[in-house]
Amino acid sequence: MKLCEILELASGVWRVALLYFPALQNLIGMFQFWEKQQQRQNKADQLLYEEVQQRRENPDPSCTDILSLLMAARAGN
């Protein structure tokens, strides 16, 4: 599964609604929800760390996406 797919699943309207409406939590079962949500979060973390590692090993100064810009940023004095 791609990172964008994982993030879309985790940030869907119903998943976010579960965070704010306890009545919905009872309908779905919070344990199952949080277990799947944690699995998605772990997978997203893994994919992000792999991407950062790959870019550190093979930097491309011509890239202008947000991750490249963040990785190229330096603290200003």
Please tell me about this protein's structure.
The chain has 77 residues and is mainly α. It is built from five helices and no strands. It has helices at residues 3-10, 13-20, 22-28, 30-57, 66-72. Helix 1 packs antiparallel against helix 4. The chain is elongated, with a radius of gyration of 17 Å.
Task: State the share of residues found in helices, binned by percent.
Answer: over 70%
Question: What fraction of the residues are assigned to beta strands by DSSP?
Answer: under 5%
Helical stretch tally: 5
The ordered H/E elements are HHHHH
Mean pLDDT: 81
**Rg of Cα set:** 17 Å
Give the class from helix and strand content and strand pairing: mainly alpha
In total, the number of strands is 0
Using the alpha-carbon principal axes, give the shape. elongated
Cα distance spanning the termini: 41 Å
Low-confidence stretches: none
Please describe the biggest sheet, giving its number of strands, its sense, and whether it closes into a barrel: none
Task: Spell out the key features of this protein.
elongated; mainly alpha; single chain; 77 residues
Short characterization:
With 77 residues, the chain is mainly alpha-helical. The protein has helices at residues 3-10, 13-20, 22-28, 30-57, 66-72.
Element layout with pairings:
Layout (H helix, E strand, L loop, with lengths): L2 H8 L2 H8 L1 H7 L1 H28 L8 H7 L5
Helix pairs in contact: 1-4, 2-3
